[in-house]
Write a structure and sequence with these properties.
Elements: E1 3-4, E2 7-14, E3 24-25, E4 28-33, E5 39-44, E6 52-55, E7 69-73, E8 78-87, E9 95-99, E10 108-113, E11 120-126, E12 131-138, E13 145-152, E14 163-169, E15 173-176, E16 185-188
Parallel strand pairs: 1-11
Antiparallel strand pairs: 2-12, 3-14, 4-8, 5-6, 5-7, 7-14, 8-13, 9-12, 9-14, 10-11, 10-13, 15-16
The structure holds calcium ion.
Amino acid sequence: MRRSHLFFISVIICGFGTLSDAGEYGTSVVTFLPGTDDVASLDLVSNSPCSLTSRPVDLVDVLGPPNGKFVSIGHLGFVGIEFPHDIVDMPGPDVAVWASCNTDCQSAAILVTHDPAAGWGQVATMGAASYAEFDIFFDPGAPPVRYLAVLDGGCTGLEGGVDIDAVANLQFVVTVKPTTWGAIKALYR
Ligand SMILES: [Ca+2]
């Protein structure tokens, strides 16, 4: 898969994921390249700290807010997800990924693009964590990006794939159409 070099990472913050009024979640899957093994949808078992049941893949499970429903994208699998608004480079984390509690050897690469047909640029790697935030730096003049992808890290010795629950665009711009001439506002939420 062709990758550009328009972007690079800065900080990765791991912890428990919450999302207040700010941010938005993925709304559609634009690319899904299932891995060579361990491709399924998974449900978190109630009253169990980390137990998952399996069913056929339903890509809806990576959309919307985190809900305990995951897609295991498979060994070296790839899923690309669209946000309603462009990802904006602001101070602090810009995007977030929720994965399952089954974090043993489930690393992943995080990629973004403004157009899936133009290729993806890797901006971060995600280690063994059920939640991570990423602060992305954008090259000056680079087009804004709208899509985020997760590429399974292909853990050596295991054929499992990372399990994705949800992704979020933490900071985005909504352009408000002018009510008076020239009165265009960019609201950062
Ligand atoms: Ca989910």
